[in-house]
Amino acid sequence: MASLSSDALLADGPLLFVSGQTPRGPEGEVAVDVGGQTRRSLANVETVLARHGAGLEHLVKLTCYLRHITDLDEFRTALISALPEEHRPAVTLVEVSALVDPTFLVEIDAIACLPRRG
Fold first, then answer.
1. Closest residue by Cα to residue 103 from 53, 28, 26, 46
2. What is the pTM of this model?
């Protein structure tokens, strides 16, 4: 199985700290499964990054909050498929007893190293 994360990454540039992104879509929809929620949460991270001229390839650290550790395999599969294959950020995963909305199974916050300008 592909590696979920890097052991460490060196950041050399301005850092962007992305607040926790929930699995709520732009129309308020929330997938019922962990895979769908993981992909949506990461897509929401990607949207924030894009507003700052960055993409998933600029991620250096993810902190992932998972409601049920029994969903780990589905979570890992979704995360690995959503991240660029050539770039794996450092990742911390924490099981939590609840998130802000009881339908949420996943939340992801991130740190990115922004590309240097001009």
1. 28
2. 0.90
